[in-house]
Specification:
16% helix, 8-stranded mixed sheet, disordered C terminus, 2,3-Dihydroxybiphenyl 1,2-Dioxygenase, domain 1, 8 strands, globular
Amino acid sequence: MTEHGNFHWNEFVTRDPEGFKAFYAKTVGWTYEAQNQPTGECYWLIFANGRPVGGIFPTNQPGLEGIPDGWMPYLAVDDIDARVEKAVAAGAQLMKPIFEIPDVGRMAILMQPGGVGVGWITPAQGECGQSR
């Protein structure tokens, strides 16, 4: 259960998912599960002690060449549409239109003022605070 304004998910964006996986498996003990996406790409779920704690988004695919490796946090928000509207009015740039991932939630990728990327999500089943 993630409440509005709290971090909901962390994702590592990388051109080298295998290197990332090997490093964290050896140093932290993480395990991974492949999730095939409708577009054909593979998304990796990260597990700590059998619990999902994050994901790996591979950028070693066409169209993502300019994206640097790094962590992308996702904040839980109660109403993605209304909150994105407020963010844009406050100077953020919507980098990717709001999109939905079934059984996950409605999401947006923003560039906040100052140039830092952040994801926002209204988790599946509506209001923050309700888990799927």
